[in-house]
Design a protein that fits this description.
Helix content is 44%, strand content 17%. By secondary structure, it is of the alpha+beta class.
C-alpha cells in the first residue's frame, strides 16, 4: 500500500481492535503489499488489512476455522474476538493469533513436506466451493494478453508467457490424476515457522487441482519428501507457476515489493526452463 493508504489501514485496524475491548495503541508492519499485515500491541494479535473491494475474508476465515478444528497446520484466528471480518473506513480486517518466530526460521524440506501433506489430508475432507487452478491460469493469460495492463512487457517476452501458460496449463489440466482442494500458494512467504511447528497462512488463494500444483510453489527440495508426487507433473507445474507469478509482476497495478526486478529475473528463469524442455 502507498503511505497514505497504509496509514489509514493501520488506523482502521487499531480502531477496530480497541472497540473490541483489547488494548491496541501501536502497530508493527510485518508485510506490506496488496494487503497490510500488522502486529498490534500490547494486545499482541495479528491483523490483516485489505481494501474492502479486494478480499475474500469470509471464505478464508471459515476455511481456517474448519482446518484448525481438524488439527491442520494453519494459523489460528484470535480466540478473544468473534471470528468474522471487520469493516472500517473502506478496509476489511481479519484478526489472527500472532506467533513468535522460531529460533531458526529455516524449514527443513522434510518438515515442509510433512506439514503440506497434513494440510492436504485435511483439505480432502472438506466440501467447499473453490475455483479450479485453471481459472487462475486463465486470469494470467488475460493479463498477458492485455497490453494496457502490462505495458512494459516486451513482445518476445509476452509471447513466451502466453505460449507457456497455454501449453502447460492445458497439459496440467489434462493430466488425468486425482484433484482436490489446495492451498493455492503455499510458498515460503505463506509459511510461519513457530516453536510449535510449521503453519500455513493466507488461505484466500485456495483452489482445486493436483497436489503437484501446490508443491510447485514450495522449494524444489520439498518435492522429494512428498510421498506419491508425480515428478513429471510436478516439473510441468513448476514451470507453469513460474509463468503465472511472472505475469502478475508485470501488471501495472502490482504492488509487490521489488516486483519489476523479480519480473525480469523470473523471465530469464522461465526462458531457461522452457529451453530445457
Amino acid at each position: 500500500m502507498n503511505g497514505t493508504e497504509a496509514s489509514r489501514a493501520t488506523a482502521a485496524a487499531l480502531t477496530v481492535v480497541s472497540s473490541l475491548g483489547l488494548p491496541a495503541d501501536d502497530a508493527v508492519v510485518l508485510h506490506d503489499s496488496n494487503k497490510l499485515t500488522l502486529r498490534l500491541l500490547p494486545c499482541d494479535l495479528l491483523a490483516r488489512v485489505a481494501p474492502v473491494t479486494d478480499q475474500v475474508a469470509r471464505f478464508e476465515i471459515e476455511l481456517a476455522r474448519r482446518l484448525a478444528g481438524s488439527g491442520c497446520p494453519v494459523a489460528a484466528l484470535d480466540p478473544r474476538v468473534e471470528p468474522r471480518p471487520y469493516e472500517r473506513d473502506g478496509f476489511v480486517i481479519t484478526l489472527w493469533t500472532y506467533y513468535a518466530p522460531a529460533t531458526s526460521e529455516d524449514v527443513p524440506p522434510a518438515a515442509y513436506a510433512a506439514a503440506l501433506t497434513r494440510l492436504h489430508a485435511g483439505m480432502r475432507e472438506l466440501d467447499v466451493p473453490a475455483p479450479h487452478f485453471s481459472d487462475r491460469v486463465a486470469q494470467a493469460r488475460r493479463l498477458v494478453a492485455d497490453r494496457a495492463r502490462t505495458p512494459e512487457l516486451g513482445d518476445a517476452d509476452r509471447a513466451l508467457l502466453a505460449d507457456t501458460l497455454r501449453t502447460l496449463g492445458r497439459a496440467v489440466r489434462e493430466h488425468g490424476g486425482a484433484e482436490q482442494l489446495l492451498h493455492g500458494e503455499p510458498h515460503p512467504g505463506n509459511v510461519l515457522t513457530t516453536d510449535g511447528g510449521v503453519r500455513f497462512i493466507d488461505l484466500e488463494t485456495c483452489c482445486r487441482g493436483p497436489v503437484e500444483f501446490d508443491l510447485a510453489h514450495a522449494p524444489v527440495e520439498v518435492g522429494a519428501h512428498y510421498a506419491g508426487a508425480d515428478p513429471t507433473l510436478l516439473r510441468r507445474c513448476r514451470t507453469l507457476v513460474l509463468a503465472m507469478i511472472t505475469a502478475w509482476r508485470w501488471d501495472r497495478e502490482d504492488r509487490f515489493p521489488g516486483g519489476r526486478a523479480l519480473a525480469a529475473e523470473w523471465l530469464e528463469r522461465l526462458r531457461a526452463a522452457t529451453d530445457d524442455g
